[in-house]
Amino acid sequence: MPCLNISTNVKLDGVDTSSILSEATSTVAKLIGKPEAYVMIVLKGSVPMSFGGTEQPAAYGELVSIGGLNPDVNKKLSAAIAAILETKLQVPPSRFFLKFYDTKGSNFGWNGSTF
């Protein structure tokens, strides 16, 4: 159910994306309280992106979930995902935005139907 979509201007050639995906999956599942089996992470690199007028490493993310989000959880998720991006891709936390969407099950398609 939770889907984290991250776009970055960092090139992912030679980067261990598997470790980013697995760490982000476990982090999202733990903090939202959903099984890892339902967490999707999408990571897109080499996306033309400017932040603050420069093209230094930056990232933008959107996290959609059916429940599990609230101001406290969102703050923890923002810090945790920013830490992953800083460690793995050298994107400073100050150059990363993360937008949260808490949606209804009827707005989320899966397995040929909705939740």
Automatic annotation (TrEMBL):
The lineage of its organism: Eukaryota, Viridiplantae, Streptophyta, Embryophyta, Tracheophyta. It comes from Hibiscus trionum. GO terms for molecular function: phenylpyruvate tautomerase activity. It holds the Pfam family MIF. One of its GO terms (cellular component) is extracellular space. This is MIF/D-DT-like 2. Belongs to the MIF family.
